[in-house]
Amino acid sequence: MSKTYTVAVLGAGKRGKMHAKLFSRDPRFRLVGLCDTDTERLNAAAAESGNPPLYTDAEKMLSETSPDVFCFCTPPALRKGLFKLGIDHNVKLIALEKPLSTNFNEAREIYDMAGNAGIKFCVSHQQKYGDHYQAVKKIVDSGKLGRIQTIYAHVWGWYFHMVTHVMDYIRMYNGNDDALWVSGTIHGRGKLEDNHPSPEYAGGFIQFKNGVRGIVECGELSPDVPESEYPWHKGRFVVQGTKGFAEVIIGAGWRACTEADGYQEGPGCFNYETDGARYIADIALWLDGVKEHPCNGEDTFKGFQLAMALLRSAVERRIVRLPLENGENEVDAMKRVLPK
Ligand SMILES: NC(=O)c1ccc[n+]([C@@H]2O[C@H](COP(=O)([O-])OP(=O)(O)OC[C@H]3O[C@@H](n4cnc5c(N)ncnc54)[C@H](O)[C@@H]3O)[C@@H](O)[C@H]2O)c1
Hints:
Blueprint: E1 5-10, H1 14-25, E2 29-35, H2 39-47, E3 54-55, H3 58-65, E4 69-72, H4 80-88, E5 93-96, H5 104-117, E6 120-123, H6 131-142, E7 148-155, H7 159-173, E8 179-187, E9 201-208, E10 213-219, E11 235-241, E12 244-249, E13 254-258, E14 262-266, H8 272-288, H9 297-316, E15 320-321, H10 330-337
Parallel strand pairs: 1-2, 1-4, 2-3, 4-5, 5-6, 7-10
Antiparallel strand pairs: 7-11, 8-9, 8-15, 9-10, 11-12, 12-13, 13-14
Helix pairs in contact: 1-2, 1-8, 4-5, 5-9, 7-9, 9-10
């Protein structure tokens, strides 16, 4: 009989509600607590997740429930304190929402806190569980694209909403290879005061150690993807090699053309429920020790570094080499340099 893990979820907004629902449906987990300061949201989320014990105070929830897993789904500014709270309550794993942070120094602190405490953490880059993402991964892994030359990703969503998804999936298609350097450009102050404080548009290049070039565009000047109508689905990941290409369209399936198999296409669409259920199932397997979670903290931190290196490169007008060192808060730096 498989072990059941206890989980406490904080945040009953869009994402916390989804996580609570999915944990409550997974037989490997028992939802022992759900917390939000907004009781209306809390009650609505509880109704969809089996009416777990409810809390309005995170500390109280963790003290009373001592969960194996602490999952928190809060806006990006609320990360380090909650992470520390989970560690202080001896949880085995922290599952948090993306982005890991909005600045590199804090991300490193979180990463180091987890390492020093010896706990696992994972970040919800769950889109990659979609059938279309996996179909492309299968083609990439088969070797039928020949030598991979470029991985081009573009999304309409703004930077701190989307870029860590983007970097994570580029890395996935490139075998999680490390990068040598990043070059970036940014434009527009319009979203700097958002709770995902971002340039309106960012573009950049990543040089990976294995020779693959990553190309990234994020924000409103990125190319349209007419196959998807919903703005958050207007994104594409294209892996191009010497013997073909394969691409994911976030909201509209996949297609490929290879020397070996000719033209192929298939369905798939970003889906919070089905992608999230797979992400959560893998948390149990990681805790069992069966396999490492594909959204593990180590890879998340490396993807996050690429995103921050791109911003630093734009601010400093030079390529930025990896691994990244601590430096000026990237959002402050953008506020300083982006023209008014
Ligand atoms: N993985 C994905 O595909 C995906 C998609 C959308 C959003 N997100 C990310 O999810 C995160 C959360 O997004 P959201 O839309 O659910 O946010 P939200 O603001 O709607 O919800 C956050 C909730 O947390 C509660 N909260 C905050 N601090 C609290 C505290 N200390 N104690 C108790 N409750 C507290 C708030 O009251 C709120 O209800 C963001 O970082 C966002 O980028 C991820």
